[in-house]
Amino acid sequence: MKAFVSGRRLGILAFSLAGVASFISFSAPASAESTDAGANLYACRKGWPSCEASRLTPAEATEVATDKRVRNLADCRNGMSSCEQGLLSEVETIAVAVAAYDRNVSNCRSGSSHCDRSQLTRSESHDADAAAHQRLVADCKDGIGPCDVSALSSTEAADVARASRMRMVSDCKDGRVGCRQTELTLAEAKEIAQAARERNTANCRNGWEECDRLKLTAPEAAEVDAGVRARNVSACREGRETCNYALLGRSETEAASGVEQLRNLTACQSRRGYCDRSRLTPAQAAAIPVEAK
Known about the structure:
By secondary structure, the protein is mainly alpha-helical.
C-alpha cells in the first residue's frame, strides 16, 4: 500500500513538473512574439523602413494610417520634400497652401533667398522693401558689411555717421584696431590716453604679457611689484610650479619651507605623492616604517 501511495505521489510530481516546463516553453515564445509585435507597431507608427505592414492587425493598421496622415500634414505645412500632396484632404490642402503663402511672405520680409516676390501682393512687396531698408540701416549703424550710404535718407546717414564715430571712439578706449587717433577730439584723446594707462596698469598688476612697465609711474610700479610678490608668495606656499624662490625674503622662504616640510611629511605618512625620507626628523622617520617594494 505504501509503495502504491509513493508511486502515485511521484506520478503527480512528474506531471506537475511537466506542466510547468510546458508552460515556460509556450509562454517564452509568446512573450517574445508580443515584444516583437510591439516593436513592429512602433516602427510602423514612426514610418521607419523596418515596418512590416502585413503583420499589423486591422486596428493597428488604422492607427498607423492616422499617424502617417498627421505626419504628412506636418511635412506639407513645413514645405518639406517628403510631403505627399495626394494624401491631403481638401481642408488640409487649403491649410497647406495658406502655410506656404505665409512662409513665402515671411521669407521675403527677412531677406531669405527662398523668397518668391512674384507671389506677393503690392502691399506685401512694399512691406518687404521696408524691412530690407531697415536691415540696411541697422547694418550700417553696426558696421556690418559694406554700407550703401546712397540708399539712406539724410537723417539716416547722419545717424549712421554718429554710430560709426561712437564705435570708433569705443575701439580706441579698448585698444582695438578700429581706432583712428587722427579723428579724435582733444577731450577724447585725453580720455582715451587715460584709459590706455589704466589698462596697462591692470595688465601689469595681473602679470599679463600686454604689460609695458616703461609706461608705469613710480607709484604704479611699486603697486605692481607688491602684487607680483604677493602672488609669488601664494604660489610658493601652495607648491605651484609658478613659484619663483629668488623673489622670496628670508621670512617668506622659511614659511614656504615649513609648508613644504608638512607636505613631505603628509606624503610619507599617506604613502601618496613625493616623499623624501631624508628630510624627516628621526622621530618622524621612526614612526613611518619603510614600505616594502
